[in-house]
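3.2 Worked example (two chains)
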Amino acid sequence: MTGLLALFAFVIGAVIGSFLNVVIYRLPAGLSVVWPRSRCPHCGHTLTPLELVPILSWVAQRGRCRNCQAPIAIRYPLVEALTGVLFAAAALLRPEFPGLLLIWGFIALLIALAFIDLDTYELPWGLNYGGLALGLLGARLLGYPQPFSQALDGALIGAGFLAMINAFGVLLMLRGRNNAWTPPWGYPQINLAAAVGSWLGPAAGLVAGFLNVAFNLRSPKPFRIPDALALGLAVLGPLVALLIPGWGLTPLSSLRAWLLSAGGLALAGGIYWWVQEWRHPSAQTDDGDEVVAMGFGDVILMGFLGAWLGVANLGVALLLAVVAGAVIGLVVRRMTGENKIPFGPYLALGGLVAFFFGQDLIAWYLGYIGAR
């Protein structure tokens, strides 16, 4: 029975992979992913059902269009095969329904995000927030893949952690100077929320950040506090909690509040700019002079992964992503000379491995260092 389920999963995955090829090509171009029907990009020939059979059509046609004989990129059957293999692996590792259906959605979204990031160095808002919403809804309605409170914590802490990595990285790159930003919502508000949350708790941090945004929406002169000051105060929060007994926060709860506050402002800010892009497609919603150490799409993707993995497994995913990015990135740089390498595919890879094997890896490591 398990083998039949895996075979069924492979077939379903290959079909979904065929659709993902359409998403990967059309979504960044602003085209509909459902209409018109698939066609050859060289001659415009509308593909027949027989030409759309995943993997087999490409093999039967020897990788060429039947109409114009133009080559069809091998990446199309590879995406179909990859999706099929991962769907089958998920069926073998987590065969329970309806959880398996959620996992297939998780896998499909990560594949689409990874390949779009490889092509465009961008991670679409819709796919990122779709994955976040799917994880939170599964947790709320089914308690899967984890309880809702853990999913929400993972999403906020994941987004907050990567947002802070970017903030401190940029501060070092600019040697303490303020970064450029596009009002009313950006890293200054995330940094402010982090600073207040670190001292007074996540509720206070979120209120401070949202109040700053509300002021900027109504004022002709947006308000920000210096990046160095905000981040410095955020760092001091856990130290004050450590040094002053009875402060109200422990060092660990102060750090948690710091990241929750930053993550809440980051995820809400992404939704704001997504809506702005939808309302004004031709408008410039980011400052061309803004320096970034980590793309904001990666921040949202980290929140998406956090909703599925929880905080502990999220750490495994990030570690795996950094190691894979360093190793593979070095190889790619030496082979192609390309210095700009997207981080999204490595986060997707780390997230998939951590989802299925994160607890095993943690247990192995703790045993290796003699901690259990």
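3.2.1 Second chain
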Amino acid sequence: MGLLDRVGRLIRANLNDIIEKAEDPQKILEQAIIDMHEDVIKLREAVTLAIASQKRSQQQYNQYQSEVNNWQSRAQLALQKGDENLAREALQRKKSYQEQANIIKVALDSQTAQVETLKRNLIQLESKISEAKTKKEMLIARKRAADVNKQLQDLINGINTTGSIAAFERMEEKVLVAEARSQGLAELAGADLESQFQALEAGNGIDDELEALKAQMLGGSAQPQGQLPAGEAPAAPETQPQKPKVDTELEELRQKLQKI
């Protein structure tokens, strides 16, 4: 029994889902208006029948009342003529018609109330139809707007900008890396050029200093041999000649340069 309940529930759920998807609000509302118009037609027919029945009852009641009045007049006439038996018969007939008129009067009152109720219901239903038509147009417009909004949302949700944005970010990263690499190479090239100029300038300074040193040394050795500066006495002759001090310094300087 539990399995049958589950199967039945599943079938109902699937049917409800199919019906829910198949329902078109516009068609459903239009069908509802058509059904209401059919109800109005039926109600008008009922009102028409009720009014016809009321009129028949009214006619019967009027006839019975006319007979009542007629037999009342005949009873009076019989009494005037002195015929009591005839007057009694006339009153008996009057009573019979009065009883029938009373019965018809009860039915007539009921029919009159029923007709009034049916008329009010008909007016209300016609008013509801008018309101339903206006509301139908409003609901259809809202449904169309909702459908358009849903389509736009589906379109927006279907657009995948993640890949495009990621591609832009990758390209931007590559451009930044290329710019940094180019800037680094430019800085390295500038530094290398600067170092070359610094080495050249340093070399020129050493060469200039070397030339100045040579000129100074050559200027000191240009004096004639055998002459002494003023105010100096000739030195005593030595047994062995000594190597000049300048040559010793030059030799030491040459050895240092070779080590470098």
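3.3 Remarks
Residues 208 and 214 are 10 Å apart (CA to CA).
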